[in-house]
Amino acid sequence: MVKCCFVPECTTGNYRYNKQQKTSGLRNRSLFKPPQNPSLFEKWFEAIPRKDKVLSESSHVCELHFKENDIIRYDETILFDGTVDVVKRIRAMLRKGAVPCIFPNLPYSLTEHNNETNNREPPAERFLYNKKKKSKLIPARSDTSEMQCSENIEENINQQFSFQYLKENLNKLEKPDSKWMFELKDDEVELVRWNRQCSKRITISNDLKIKIFFSGIEILFEHIINTILLSMDETNKLLNYIHSLIECKGIMTAENNITRRSITCKGYVEIRLGQRGPKSNYCFDCRIARRSMANCLRRKVLKLENKIQEK
């Protein structure tokens, strides 16, 4: 079934538009279904100026009629070191409460416009003037003494942080949930979370190097390999990051409870915005491998069925 935009005078989804996009090699515009929330559905119904057809649950509205801020095109995940990992979504998604308000092919009064203002460069320096005396006052300069004090405090904390300091202050670490257990050994510290489905283990050696294990298998992270912990804050961030990860279920599980994985499987899945259902338990590479395996099995079944029918 061909999906076309419900907004009048919009060409998204029709035959000419699809043919033009295919020949030029451009992607098709994203289409969104109306919300299931009755109050928000009424807002959509009132916003779209169309009288010959009634908006229904099977209708679609393309991305041209929404503000750019209302469309989520990228997923952002905050890593344990504070950096933000940005990944482009396969399918765009609307934010909660988004309502179509831009109709470029309709009269000017029916669409919402941004107030265009003359952008001017801000002055290099701002000065204060006395009303009585028109003499310029010297602009205030920010005092750097506080910044230097804070930097010195951070340096002292980093110098104090050591393996012995971690062992003595291990109880100060914030557990993401009650299943996390902390174990002290002579040469290392273990942060372990036991679960029926997956066990997570972080080992910190006496030189503050990290190793991470999921169900007894070491997981290599590109941004964590050969990293050394510098503070308790970093240890907390690492703990929360590992807690947020899901172990990849692989392609299939054999009789001996051995999980088969693809060659390029990372061993974990990051929870992303809007990602739900069984797909969230498999990494991208294992998903493709599972799909190809399922297709092979279907072909074999079809061949057997055809042979039986011929007999």
Automatic annotation (TrEMBL):
The keyword Metal-binding applies. One of its GO terms (molecular function) is DNA binding. It comes from the Eukaryota. Signal peptide: none annotated. PROSITE patterns: ZF_THAP. This is THAP-type domain-containing protein. Gene3D superfamilies: THAP domain. Keywords: DNA-binding, Metal-binding, Zinc, Zinc-finger. Pfam families: THAP. Residues 1-103 form the THAP-type domain. InterPro entries: THAP_domain_protein, THAP_Znf, THAP_Znf_sf.
